[in-house]
Structures are given as C-alpha cells and as structure tokens.
Amino acid sequence: MEPSDDVQDPLAQRRLRYRELLRNITMESDDTAGAKDTQRDDVLPVGFEDSQGDGATVEATFKQPPPETPETIRTRSWVLATFWIIAVFLGLPLWHATTTIYRAPLPMQEMQNWSEGKLCKTEFPLLVEVEAPSLPDAENLLKTVQHALDDANDFAAHKPHHLRLRLAAKGKSSDEEPKVEKDENVACLLRLLPDSQNGFHHNVQSSSRIVDIHYPPPSSSSQSTVNAGLAKFVAETLEVLFSQEQELIEHLLLPQTSNPGSLNALSSQSADEARDKKAHQPRPITADISRRMSRVVKYSANYHLTFSLFTATSLPASWDIESAISQYLTPLLSALSPISNFTISTQVQYYASISSSVTPAYDDELKSWVLKKEDLSSFINSAEWPLASISNDPNLNFILYIPHPSMSPLTIPSATHSNSFLLPQWGGVTILNLEEGASSLNHLSHPILKPALDTFATHLLALLGAPPHPASLPIRLDSLTRQRSAEVLVSASSTLGSLQRLVNALPSISIPSTVSESVKDSIRHLSLACEELRKGRFAKALEMGRIAQEEAEKAFFERTMVAQVYFPDEHKLAVYMPLLGPVSVPLVLGVIRELKRAIAEFKKTRAK
Amino acid sequence: MTSFSPRSLQWLPFSPKSLISRLFTTITLFLCLAGSTFADTYDENLLLQPLSGQFLLASFNFKSHGPIQSFNKQLFELFPRSLGQILQYTHTRELHLRFALGRWDSELWGAQPGDGQNAGGTGVELWAWVEAENDIEAEARWTSLNNALSGLFCASLNFIDSTRTIRPVMSFSPTGDFPHMNKTDLFLLHGTLPKEPVCTENLTPFLKLLPCKGKSGISTLLDGHKLFDASFQSMSIDVRPICSPINGHCDIEIQQNIDMVLDISRSLQRKDSPVPRPRDQHELVCDTTKSYASDEYCYPLDNSFDLPWSLSDLFGRSIAGSCPFAVKEPQTPHVCIAAPHDRQVHPTEGTEIFASQDGKQCFILRENQIFDIALPKQEPPTTPLRQEPLLYAERSFTGHGQEHGGVKTVLRNPSLKDSIEVVYLESLPWFMKPYLHTLNARLLPPPLDGDGDVISELYYRPALDRKRGTQLEAKLVIPANSVVIVTYDFEKAVLRYTEYPPDANRGFDVASAIITIPPHRRGSDRRNVPATSIRTTSLLLSLPTPDFSMPYNVIIFTSTIMALAFGSIINLLIRRFVAVDEVQRMDIKGKIMGLIGKVKKTKAE
Description:
The complex is a heterodimer.
Chain A (H helix, E strand, L loop, with lengths): L2 H6 L1 H25 L1 H4 L15 H7 L8 H30 L8 H8 L8 E8 L6 H18 L5 E7 L18 E9 L6 E4 L5 E6 L7 H36 L7 H15 L5 H10 L6 E10 L6 E2 L1 H8 L1 H7 L4 E9 L11 E3 L4 E3 L24 E8 L7 E2 L8 E4 L3 E5 L11 E2 L1 H19 L8 H33 L7 H23 L2 H19 L2 H4 L6 H39 L1
Parallel strand pairs in A: 1-2, 1-3, 3-5, 6-8, 6-11, 7-15, 10-12, 11-14
Antiparallel strand pairs in A: 4-5, 9-10, 13-14
Helix pairs in contact in A: 5-18, 6-14, 7-8, 8-14, 11-13, 14-15, 14-16, 15-16
Chain B lengths: L5 H4 L6 H20 L5 E11 L3 E13 H5 L8 H9 L2 E11 L3 H4 L13 E9 L3 H19 L11 E2 L19 E8 L6 H9 L15 H4 L4 E12 L6 E14 H9 L36 E2 H5 L3 E2 L14 E3 L8 E2 L4 E4 L5 E4 L5 E2 L1 E3 L16 E7 L5 E10 L6 E9 L3 E13 L10 E7 L8 E9 L3 E11 L15 E3 L3 E4 L2 E2 L6 E2 L2 E4 L3 E3 L8 H25 L13 H17 L1
C-alpha cells in the first residue's frame, strides 16, 4: 500500500501520529537527563490535561476524548448505584441470613433477677398447733409466745422461717396426728402438760409430730410468773426445734444472694451485706453445716440405690439382702417416699481387690490392719469395681466390703464401732470383718447384715440431707422437704443465672427454641414454687421447684448448644476472599472514579 | 457333651432328646438348689483341640443360671449387674453379642466349634429380641441398648444406627423360652460393625462379667496379648431365658464363649523371642526327598512332627486352680482335650482324670492347685480329628471400576449323599445398591433335568439412602456334592463429602454374609443335625473417593469464574470506551524518571 493512501485512512493517520509522539517522548526524556535544572518541568506525564509546560506539543499529538453527554454520565452513575444497592440491600442481608446463628430470645433480665434472688423472697411459714387442755389462759399464753417469736424475727429480719401459733381445735383427740386441713400443713403439735416433778422440759416423740412440753403446775399465787416462764420456755423450745433447719436453709439461701455477683458490680455489696448479716448472729456451727451440706446429693425425685457385697475372695458367696432390705430399710424408704422414690438393685462381686494405692498397715496394739485416713477417699477401686448404673436417676452406692483373710480384721481410724465411712455425694462403705471359720463365712444371714444396713440407713439420711435433730422422724422429714425445696429453688435459679451469663459471654453459640421454652417453663414453675412456699404447702413447692430445676438444667445442658459453631477468622477470609475481592475491586474503583469526576465537575462549575 | 450344644437343641422344641436333656437340667438344678445355698449356678469348661497344620483350638465356655425373679427385681448374684441392668432398662429379652477377628479356615480346620453358633462375623455383631409395643419403641430401645453396651464393652456399638440394622426374617429364631410373652411384642433386631477392631479393651469388660474375673479357674488363661495374637478368635455373650417345661419355672442364662485358634509354632516362638525372626538353619527340617535338596538349599518341611507344647507355653501362664463356683457335686470336668488317641497328654501330677465319652480326656481342677497340660514332641505327627463342615462358603467381589461391581458367593456342599437347605443373609450398606434382577444362583454341575432354580424363597428389603441398608435373605437348596454360585451386581453410590471416614481410601467394610442351616434330619443316616451357621469373611468395598481439598478448590474456581463474569459485565457497563489516541495515559517511566530527577536535585542541593 502506498503511504499517500494511508494518509486518507484516519486509523493509519493516528498510527503515524502515535509513532511520532513516541519519538518525541524518548527525545524529551533524553533531554531531561542531560539538562536537569531547566528542563525538569517538562517531565510531566504526557497527555495530562493540566500539563502546562509543553502542553502545546501534547495537544498537537493527542486527542482529547469527546466530552461525555450528561446522559451517559447519568446512566453510568445509575448502573453503579444499582450494583451497590443490590449488594447492600440484597447481598448483605442474604449473606447475614445464611450465616447467622439462630438464637432464640431468652428473658435475660428475668433470668438474672432470679439468679440474684430478687424475684422470690423465700419464706417458710410454719404453723404450730398448741394444745393446752389444762391451761386456763392458753390464748393469752399463745399471744405472748407469738409476740416473743415475732420480736426475734424482727430482730433478724432476714430469717426465712415464720412461726405461727394456733390453738388446736377443741375436742380433737391429742393422740391423733395433725392432719392436712385445707392445704395447711401443721409443722408440729405442742402439747402443754403439767408436770409437778421435773419442772420445764420438753419431750419429742420419735414417730410423730407431737412435742410434749412439761411445765410445773401453776400454784394459784404465781399464775402470771408461771405463764411468763412457760411462754419463754415454749418460745425457746420452738427455737431449738427449728434452729438447725433454719440455719441450713439460711446457708442454702445465702450464696443465692451473693453468688451471681461474681460477674457484676453488685457482688461486693451483696457479699458485704451477707457478711453483715452473719455478724449479727452468732453461728458457731457454720462449718459443721457446710460440711454437712457438702455431702448431700443433688435433689432428684428418684434415686437408685445399689447395695453391693464386695469380697476379696470367693466367700461369702451369698447374702440375705432381699429380706434384710425389706426388714431394715423399707420402712425408712416408704417414710421418705413423699420426697423421693427409690429403686434398688443389689450385686455380689467376688475377687474384688481394693485399689493398689491403698495399703493398710498392721497395728500391733489394735491387732488389726488399719487404713489411713487419706486412703479412705481412694478406697473405691473404680477401675475394677462395676459400680456404674445405667438408670437416669442419681445412683447411691452402699458397699459392704469383706477383706481378704490375710488382711482381716481391717479397721478404719477413729471410727465408731460401725467400721464404716461415708463418701460425700456418692454413698457409704462398711467394712465387715468375718471371723475365720465362722458359719457366716459362706452365707451372710440377715442378723449379720443388720448393723451394716442400719449404718447404710444413717448414711442414706445424711446423703439426702436430713437434719440430725430433733428426734422426731416426721419433723425431720418435713424439715428435709423444706430444705430440699429451698435447694431446688436455689439450684434452678442459679442454673438460669449461669445460662444467662453463658449466653452473654459466648455470642457464637446457637440457642434453639427448645431452650427458650425450657427457660420460660422453668421460670413459670419457679414463681409457682415460690408462691406455694409462701402459702406453706411445701410438698407442692418441692414438686414445682423440681420441675423448674429439671427444665433449667435441660436448657443449660442442651446438646446442640454444647457444640458451638466456630470458624477461625483465617478460614473465613480464605473462603470469602476469592469471591469478594475480585468483585469488590471494580465496584469500589468505579465509585472512586465517579467521585473524582464529580469533584472535578464541581470545581469546574465553581471556577466558572 | 451336651454342654457344648444345648443351644442348638433348643431349635427342636419337641424332640424327645431335648425334652430329656431339659428334664435332666431341671433335675440337676433342683439338686443344686437343695444341696447348697446358691441361688445361681455356674459352670465353666475349656476344650482344647489340636487342629491340622499345628494349630490349637481353645474353646472357653462360661455359663451361669439364675432365677428370673431375682433378675427382674435387680437382685444380682452371679449374673453381672452391669449387663443385667442394661437388659432390664432396654427391655431386651434375649441378647447375642459377638466379637470376632480373623478367619476360620474351614478347609484346614473343619467345622467350627459349637456348630458355628458362637462365632460372629468379623468385627462386632449384635442381635437381640427386644420387647416393645410397636416398631418405633423397639427402635428406640435398640438404640439405647447399643449405646449402653458400647459403654460397657468399650466398643463403638453406638454406631449401629438404622443404616446398619436389619430385621432378619428367616435366619434367626429365638433360642430362649418365652412362655408368658406375646410373640408379636418381641422384635428381632440385628446390627453389625464389620470395621470394629476387637482388642484388649473389649476383653477386660468381658472378663469382668465372670464371677471369678480371671482370678481363678480357666479364665486365668485369658490374656489379651495371647488372645489377640491368635489366628482366629471370637468372643460371644448370649443371654436368654430358659423355662422348665414341667413346672414353668424360668431361669435367666448367660453364656460367655471364647474360641481361639492358636498357631502353636508362632506362640512358642513368641515365648523364646518377642521379636519375630526367621528360624535358624539348624532348626529347619528339610525335605530331603526333593530332587534339588542339598546342603545349601533347604525345602522346609512344615509338619514333620507334632510340636511339644504346654498351656503355660502357649498362654504364658497356667490355670490357677478352680473357680469355687464351678465346683459342684456330682463332679463335672473343667478342662477337656480332644487330642488324637495316639498323642500323649501329661497333665500336672495329682490331677484327677475324668473319663469322658467321644474320645476326650477331661480333668477336674482343684481349688488353689495350679494346673497345666503338657504334650511332648511326637514323631511322626498325629492326624488331628477333623469334622467335615456341612458347607463351605466363600464370597468375593467381581467387576472393576468405580461405578459398578458384583458379588459372587460360592457355596459348596461337600456331602456326597445329602442335599441341604440354607438361608443366605446379606446385610449391605446403603451405598452399595444391588440390582435384584441380576441376582442369579447357578448350580454346578448343571442339573440334568434343566431345573436350575435353587432359590426357593427370597426376602428383600431395599435400601433407602442414608436411612437403612439392604437386607437380602434367600433360601437355597444345595444338592449333594455340588456347588451353588450366587452372583449379583451392584452400583456404588457417591457419598457426601462429610460421609467419608478419615481413611476413605482404605475402603468400606461390608459385613459378612450369614449362612444358616436350619436344624434338620439328615436323609442318609436319619440323624438330627442341629442348627449351624457359617459366616463368610467381610469384604472391602472401594468407593469413588474425592480429593478432600475439593471444597476449597471448588470455592476458588467458582469464585474466579463469577469474578471474571462480574468484572467484565461491570466494566462494560461503567467504563467509557474511547479511541486509542484519546486514551489519557499514564507515563510510568516518565514519572519514575521525574522522581529520580527530584531526588538527585535535592541531593545536589
């Protein structure tokens, strides 16, 4: 082709110019290198709009693109805006919805309030009936006693117990058990009996709720003084009867007010308050109570009791456990049935050796092998003894251990004659030393088992948390009911509190709706239980509290919550970057360019 | 010995022999009850049987009975509480649990001990009759049974889910008695875990269930190191109720079995050096009859003599006296050896030898008296007793490729006179989808009359993806001295990414096929043949396995494509297109030079 033809062609013309331009640029830069000072302004990007120096040359070789129509600019801005709108209003919500973790709403504030004990002022109104057939002015006496009790209560305002006295209905036989009358439980019946010999003393009947109070019969002259003395004595007796339970319950409720503080600022304050309260009252047996409480098994409506005979040899081969249980233990279990039910299994395990870490030493004085005190805690050979239970109820183990003849008699230090020990929250162990060649060596008949089972019964009561006093079993069991209801209330509310803190602390765990339902259910039952307590229906309160506790625990131990979704940040970055990076770069750059253009335009219009 | 096959007799409830044996058991039971204060009775015995090829079969059998009333009240004596509670809690009325490892070489060793009733397929096998009102309840109880047993035996039984559970129709029938129970309330469920490696942690809980716990009696021989070194071993637990047909008095019976086949030469070598090493030259016995035999080359002769062994050599210890619960009047033997007549057997001195029928020598253990048996070296070797199995079975995969495959099972009836009826049961995982139309049973030699239909009954439950596996049960008749080849094709499913196990390229285990021969009366000699079962080996199925970095690759690829598409579209939309000379270009070189110039200038200043 001829060059002259080329000139006609606009494309070829441009190409020619471009070549020229390139030459210019190289020459210019060579010049720049030679003449540093004078030519430096020439070294500007070629084709820059605002280039001043050699602008003319550039203008000559470069064409400005034709000005854009406002129509195209508007379209471009719209396109960009649409992309951004879709990304922000559709993409982001979609992304959020597909990656978010479902968290059902929980009544957080309410949960916290429960755990801080704000919503339920635990009260235990106790109704005490008084029967005074031979006292003329019984009404008056009651008033005095009630007054004294109320005074004591006012002094220590936090006391959960509230004793209320009532005169027993006339004509009712005193031997009759106080009955439930219209939802009212009578905690105990006081019988005031004149006794000329012994002066003031009280006598608790072991199998009923009747407490006899003996007082010296009033002589006509000193009627008022006797009344005053009697009133004082009655008040003291009641105080003694319920003091232990009261302290236990206070002990239970105390952590409820001070514990949840561990995370909030209120803690120190409430702890201080608690300490103040403590200081007000002399409590010499707090240590004893906390020791006793630490043994107690968590409350459950059902317990499974396992009685195991572990023998180090193959003898004795069998035991009369069935008849022994029905004879020595069943009465107690049926008495406990309003609080908890029990299922029983028994087993015999032969060739059961104690843990190898436990080495009894022979004591020449006692003529027996003595276990060290620190050995007792590791006495149970959990690796080899099959003690696990499949049932869902808490399992309490009672072990009758028969040592190897070469290590018999085996005793434990500072023990009473029973040669047994209690393992807190787990069960009891009794070591039975059989004499060489005795007939019992082959088969344990139930007279031999009696002491062991009696010990197990005491262990069971201690594990369940029954107070050791007073002597009357019904009163003790009533008190156990109250104590257990306080316990489930505290445990349910503290579980709710823990759940609330857990949910707050871990934002990445999912909360299924079942948890929210359980929490609501738990709170509802908690308030029901609280109401029942206030009305003095303790058995009902215990039941409600138990449901509340179960629901709270169900919520807390929800399986899907345990496995929390966790993706490390690097992982997320690695997944998102390949898509979001390349997509967002043109979007962002587009916005920047548009902005630049807009600013330039704005400046231009202002300059005009 | 009735004690070795009482279960099989249960299959024939009305045969006179079973009635007599039951009567006998009841009478013995009564005697025992009258004689001692035990409510429960316990029996244990060990059968030693040399097998061809210098192997030794040791069968341990532990059995205890107790009244079902105290079992129901959870008052346990000899019956282990840990297992009893599980059975009660899950309403399991009859339980069979098997742990097995290795392959029983029936060509070499003959029929399996106990008619194969105590052996299971490789891994873990469990079947139980669960009492429930409906299917859903049965399923729930079965799940909790699996979970509980998994905890008790330290095995992954909890992985027996609905995909590994089948409900066999023809293969199993209850061996216990259920006189007071509605049969429709009992559900049979069967699950297998072919991949489970059976090991010491399963043996320890197994021993704990025994009253003597491996501290005395024959169970003292059971040591994990020896047991799991065996060429074949199987542990089984069977619990079932047995009722007396006379007074309706029911007992619960637990039977624990361990069968192991020891390679005598290897066990002896292990004793000398724990590290396996080749035999020294002077220890080798060479076959000098070969033409190439010389001083330099040795063609080793394997069975030139019977190796000398004793229990303490093979098991690392001897029996530490009897278990006191297994001592009773009249005396029953504890250890028996079924050696060939011409093989010498030397028990520990002072041991009472108990003459026994069918050529066994039996011994009674004494309390606190160590017991051992020694068999001296014997040349020429004796021929061990071998019982011809009723059936030989082999199963293998055919075909190639990642998409399809086939299964071929060869069943051979060695009997020259009697044809047998067998039930063939396959439990296949859901990702192995058989084509039922390809199921074919071929008879070899082909029948003369042309009727080659050997499958008389077929039960098939197809798989549902991720819900249940295939269950295939076929009743076949195998004529005398012939072979039946069962074949079918299947398709391999592609699994989801997370469904692959950590070692996906190893393959997936397919459970053993279970071949049951129902009890029958043999045609040729009119003898009753008890129920027998045979298991094939498990198979290793390789599925198409992806590269596991795949998800990230997929993310990268899709993202790149999407970014490309998006980038081009958005550029098309928001960029301005101009002519080349209208491009406002950046002169990078000039810029850099300018910068350098600036730096130089500032330097000069």
